[in-house]
Amino acid sequence: MAEGLIRAYGWSTDDPERAALFADGEHCAAVQHACNVLEDAPGMLNLSEERGLFSFIRSPLAMGLLTGARDPGRRAAAGDLRSTPPAWLSWYEQGGVPARHWAARVEAVREVLTADGRTLAQGALGWLWARSGRAVPIPVFRTVAQAEENAAALTHGPLRPAQLEEVAALLA
Predict the structure, then answer these.
(1) 15, 22, 42, 60 - which has most CB atoms within 10 Å?
(2) Does 74 have pLDDT greater than 90?
């Protein structure tokens, strides 16, 4: 860094305490962590706000649950990580079927997220932007149409404060 070869750096962690220690570095600019409507990360988002860091968000669409593409009862294709989920991936059961608990939570917030002409994915991205102006979601896409849908979320912007509160109440 003294030679000017590295302007800034970031770290990937879901632990706010460790991220805070890392953020003390002079050139720390970002932290990457998981966050979405189903599993909020207030500690990480608060840290990013307090320290002026960007929050690069992993799994903003909960590996497909927040896109509407992973309907309950629909199995994931062979070779898909969701078909034999590791222990840390609680959103799916063996066979890649969305876990009932998580599918029920998606249904609970679907109407709020799809208000104002948004798709479910666009609402989920808007929720993140409403949670923090420093949130930079990294949504995965497999097709041009999905990439375009995600990009179109920008035209809708963040959810309104009342919508954010409604989502919180529905998931409490």
Answers:
(1) 60
(2) no
